[in-house]
User: What shape does this take?
Amino acid sequence: MTEGSAAPDTAPDPAADGTAIEARAAELRSLIEYHNERYHTLDDPEIPDADYDALVRELRAIEEANPQLATADSPTQAVGGAVQSTFAPVTHELPMMSLDNAFDAAELQAWAERVAKGLDLDDAAAPVGYVCELKIDGVACSIRYERGELVLAATRGNGRVGEDITANIRGIDIIPNSLGPGAPAVLEVRGEVYLPIATFDALNESQEAAGLPRYVNPRNTAAGSLRQKDASITAGRGLAFWAYQLGVVEGGAGAPAPQLEGHGDALDWLDSLGLPVNPERRRVATIAEVSAYAERWLEHRHDLDYEIDGAVVKVDRLVRQRALGSTAKAPRWAIAVKFPPEERTTTLLDIQVSIGRTGKATPFAVLDPVFVGGSTVQMATLHNEDQVALKDVRVGDTVVVRKAGDVIPEVLRPVLADRPRGRRKWKFPKVCPACPSDLLRPEGEAHIFCFNPTCSAKRQTSIEHFASRGGMDIEGMGESRVALFLEQELIADVGDIFSIDWDRVSELEGFGQLSIDNLRAAIDDARTRPLARLLVGLGIRHLGPSGAELLSSSFADIDAIAAASEEQMAAIDGVGPTIAHSVAQYFATDEAAALVEKFRAAGVNLIGTPTSEEPKTLEGMTIVVTGTLDGFSRDGAAQAIKSRGGKNPGSVSKKTTAVVVGTEPGASKLTKATDLGVRILDEAGFVALLETGELPDAPDAPDAPDAPDDSGEAGEAGPPDEADAADGGGDATD
Ligand code: IVH
Assistant: This one.
């Protein structure tokens, strides 16, 4: 089970002054980005959706009450997960938007009324004409065909920039590599890659037969299968695809796109070109018919061989879609009607306690396996002692289980009518299940801890975390090897990883020369990881990647961070008091000091990337970068601007000093810069600006490439200003 929540302990004091609120907003952004990464990129959420939503709500409330604090790169503005680094980035020509949700009939009705108003229809009940579709629970992706041939496929990523997964998509049998007659010069189609339930079950059977762990659910397995570096693994997984949306369409040399009147026509056209389009789509006239469609599928969802988590309704006529436009995150012409999370009953077989890397003791339910929300659940967190008492679940009870956010299983309540007589209240164990230490609940804390620094469970989980993808990324150092090395006393903590006695490892069963060489190389590689990764790997409470990045760029090295006061750290924009307190507490311990010495002795990188020495040439300037630059990575360009005192938001506004344009720039940024008369610089101009702080002479500006013409595009193109607002993902180069 994962170590519990990094949700803030401190809520903002409503009477706090502006600086405190600003600091809280910055800290919330760091926390939300941390949880976004865990959910979207690592597929390993750490907190229930409800806790995550509370963080977003708090940030949104602060931003609404203090509009001056709202930033274009705030996670409240972003569409989805972060872009992963393994695959090459692909900038979506049209942003891949998200959908707003309606959770009940009243919210659906309210949406219909907004649509009617947006279309100037007097009668909200007037038949608008919708297309109803199933909401497939898979992974969104965009596939581009040129002259009928598949040339590029990308994940959604953060909505603006996804990952190039062309090789993986080519291996999905049901996706044609060539379209049928009538394909236009360019056709970009969007849809959902999913894993059919039967294929998922078969995959799990072979996992079990091979003694390997089961996959959790079809959605996560589809996501993991798509992200395989070796595309032949993807090809062997039996993924499938439903196309549900047109992206860019250009006529020209191939065949011209037909004049499409409606989204329903567009889907029929995709179907005719040989793309898989879901046959359960329906054109309907009224919102009452939409409701009936959603209700029917709520009842019949299990008749399908794929997971759905709702229905999607789209205004049919494309002129109406264009008239309605989009907000920063989602089109106004579509909405997802979400199904309520599924609930099932099962027997609570036992309540056990797991120890996380901070020593937190988390009770969890051991359940008679039950299929709920798309996967078999046999364990569910009970969070803490008070939660168990509050829910009053007792071993032997029939309990109601559901998936929180359809991801994390949760025990809701006991079915009291079914409680066998004589069941006793559960009592938290007094002793750690992994070592002989007492479990203690510090005053004012909701959680109980094992404080033994050498507790084997703590060691195991903290070393796993250190070596994990989000930390030092040491491939081959997973759960079973960590357990083996601990048991063999080859390591006692994360500091020992870099001085493992390889002669002893070679004597262990299952370690051939090749696996030793691979693991040694992975560990050597980790010595040079940026300091921020090391900080994340240490598992300091509340410190996620963005907080770690800020610390490592604000201080010279780990010694300076360890010596810094809470106030010094909290003064960094984006760190704040919760993170600062936790970091200071961590470095005050003898164990932390001993670890740092082990790292130093083993030649692990402890140097930060301080930015303070740069001359502050860009103070007061706001520089937006779009497209790819030769001499700077996306982060490098942002760093170069910020370290010189400049701001680097994700979108262009009238406050923008200059827009730096690389190759393949984002059309919306360019259009906006031109409209607002903002200076446009090429890379040479940018370098000169960084050095001198002065804008080069005007003729330097390159010709702005034409913005894509959206006349032939159905779908997600909103008015330019709205499309632009959507790129507030904080990307330096789009
Ligand atoms: S349309 C601009 N249609 O739901 C509209 N999305 O919560 C773009 N999804 O990112 C999406 N089935 O991954 C659309 N029939 C469907 C869908 C669908 C599943 C997913 C998609 C999207 C997410 C939004």
